[in-house]
Specification:
By secondary structure, this protein is mainly α. It has a single domain, classed as dinb family like domain (Four Helix Bundle (Hemerythrin (Met), subunit A)), CATH 1.20.120.450. Helix content is 58%, strand content 0%. It contains 6 helices and no strands. Helix 3 packs antiparallel against helix 6.
């Protein structure tokens, strides 16, 4: 494990095996989101930029849902739990403005903790090739590898949004 940078992020291993590398990049993206949301009050987490309705609080809640969706619902075939059992696909984006910062951060951190445990369980049960318990309507079940890379993509996309939002809140900038 490499040393933490000034933002609490550890670089992924430069010569690790495939799982360590993919998991390392996912952890780096998660740590980047934590950095972008750190220390903000409710007003900061509700800040918007331009015409977009996206907020840092909404990103936290959305990525908590994404973690549970892919690692629990898809990968392990578990039923959706509260608060994710709503049919409203945009619920987390809109409802985040009603949540206290402590609630949003706990919701996201708890989802990440569950995902880490569920990924470890799946990896022990078949490695990166381990197929999800659920499949798409055409019968395709993504592999654990695909799910992890998809999570990296989700975080990377939303961390770009988080960069702009955090700069709008208090001028904090960074990579």
């Amino acid at each position: 494990m490499s040393a933490m940078d000034e933002h609490g992020r550890s670089e992924p291993p430069v010569a690790g095996d495939e799982f360590a590398t993919v998991a390392g990049f996912l952890e780096y993206q998660r740590a980047t989101l934590a950095w972008k949301c750190a220390g903000l009050d409710a007003s900061g987490l509700r800040t918007r930029v331009g015409a977009s309705s996206m907020t840092l609080g909404g990103i936290l809640k959305h990525l908590a849902r994404v973690e549970d969706h892919w690692c629990s619902w898809w990968l392990h075939g578990r039923d959706r739990q509260l608060p994710w059992d709503t049919a409203d696909k945009d619920w987390e984006w809109r409802s985040a403005a009603e949540d206290a910062p402590e609630r949003l951060n706990a919701l996201w951190r708890d989802a990440v903790d569950r995902s880490r445990a569920l990924v470890a369980e799946a990896f022990a049960d078949g490695g990166l090739e381990r197929r999800a318990r659920r499949s798409s309507p055409d019968g395709v079940s993504p592999s654990l590898r695909w799910i992890l890379v998809h999570l990296i993509e989700e975080y990377a996309r939303h961390n770009g949004h988080a960069d702009l939002l955090r700069e709008a809140v208090d001028g904090l900038v960074g990579e």
